[in-house]
Amino acid sequence: MKIIVVDDDVIMLQAIKTMLAKQGYQVFATTDAQDALDTLEEDSFDLIISDIMMPYVSGIELLSAIKKVRKGLPIIIISALDQQEVILTAFEEGADDFIKKPLNLNELLLRVKHVLNKKRV
Fold first, then answer.
1. Of all helices (H) and strands (E), which one includes residue 26?
2. Which of 31, 49, 108, 115 is deepest in the core (most CB within 10 A)?
3. DSSP state of 103
4. C-alpha triplet 49, 52, 79: angle, nearest 5°
């Protein structure tokens, strides 16, 4: 299974990448949402994990762009923003899950497995 992780927090990005790689996932990690979009055009992936607050292209903009071209691709949004409006917007744009930061990596792994299992059904 191949996963793209997008987060401008390099420490968080590396922690997520390391945890997923140890579980056997192939992980493409980037701090740039546009880089994620470009990579998605070149290769197929099974899941996207993205932060919301990033420079240049926000996670919500990334989510919207991905859903236009890969409607069935599951996306988990992670964010320190926990206002109800932000969470609702993420789900309205097509997010499959939303996890508040600070992240518990074990919880993230469980949610990744859950979303990927739902995709297979």
1. strand 26-30
2. 49
3. P
4. 80
Nearest to 15 by CA among 110, 104, 113: 104
Q: What residues make up the domain containing 54? A: 2-120
pLDDT in tens, 12-64: 999 999 999 999 999 999 999 999 999 999 999 999 999 999 888 889 999 99
- C-alpha distance from residue 5 to each of 35, 39, 83 (Å): 11, 11, 22
The two three-digit tokens of residue 97, written as one number: 């899950």
- Cα atoms in the Cβ-side hemisphere of radius 13 Å centred on 32: 5
Confirm if 9 and 51 have CB atoms less than 8 A apart.
yes
* C-alpha to C-alpha distance for 96 and 116, rounded to whole angstroms: 10
